[in-house]
Amino acid sequence: MIFILVVSVMLSVIGLVFFAFEGGFGGRGHGMGGQISQSFWFVLFVVPLVVLVSVLGYALVFPELSEEKPERAPSLAPSVERGESVLDAVLRVLNEDEKKVIETLVEEGGTMLQKDIRWKTGLSRVKTHRILFRLAKRRIVSAEKYYNTNRITLAEWLQKESARG
């Protein structure tokens, strides 16, 4: 985004300078040839300026889209204080398909291939992928390339808890 802004400013300044020297805004005209050149430099000034204003406006209206913030795992301390295990607290906030995937992983020791998760849970390939993507985004599982599939592993903090419980 910064690159776009810098290029826009540079093109706009170049266009303005040449537009002014070529007789823009009522300056000295050079007949028909001057009009074409004048129009070209005027467009070279205006278009980057419009892009610059648009990008800045977009960045001001949608600031959360312009910066990547790492998602933090939610604190499960209040649930643990009530005597509930971390695994139970995690399962409580997941939808049914996500629960099915996590329970399958826990039963299998915390690590499975994505294709095996698909077969054990009975979910479609696409649905399994989307569920695992959401779980990985929330750092509940991690995925590692393994030939033409992925090796899915429960997060360490969840594996330790499931081993205790």
Low-pLDDT stretches are: none
Q: How much helicity do the residues have?
A: 55-70%
Rg calculated over all Cα atoms: 29 Å
Q: Order of strands across the widest beta sheet? A: 1-3-2
Q: Give the DSSP E fraction (strand runs of 2 or more residues).
A: 5-15%
CATH overall fold name of the largest domain: Arc Repressor Mutant, subunit A
Query: What's the number of structural domains?
Result: 2
Query: What's the end-to-end separation, in Å?
Result: 49 Å
Major sheet details: 3 strands, antiparallel
Question: What do the pLDDT scores average to?
Answer: 76
Q: What structural category arises from helix and sheet content?
A: mainly alpha
Series of H and E elements: HHHHHHEHHEEH
User: CATH architecture of the largest domain, please?
Assistant: Orthogonal Bundle
- Any idea what the CATH superfamily of the largest domain is called? Winged helix-like DNA-binding domain superfamily/Winged helix DNA-binding domain
Number of E-type strands: 3
Annotation field: number of helices: 9
- Name the CATH class of the largest domain: Mainly Alpha
Spatial shape: elongated
Structural notes for this entry:
- The protein is mainly alpha-helical.
- The protein has two domains: 2-66; 77-164, Arc Repressor Mutant, subunit A.
- Helices cover 67% and strands 9% of the residues.
- It has helices at residues 2-21, 31-61, 63-66, 77-81, 86-93, 96-107, 114-121, 125-137, 156-164; strands at 111-113, 141-146, 149-154.
- A three-stranded antiparallel beta sheet has the order 1-3-2.
What does this entry show, briefly?
The protein has helices at residues 2-21, 31-61, 63-66, 77-81, 86-93, 96-107, 114-121, 125-137, 156-164, and strands at residues 111-113, 141-146, 149-154.
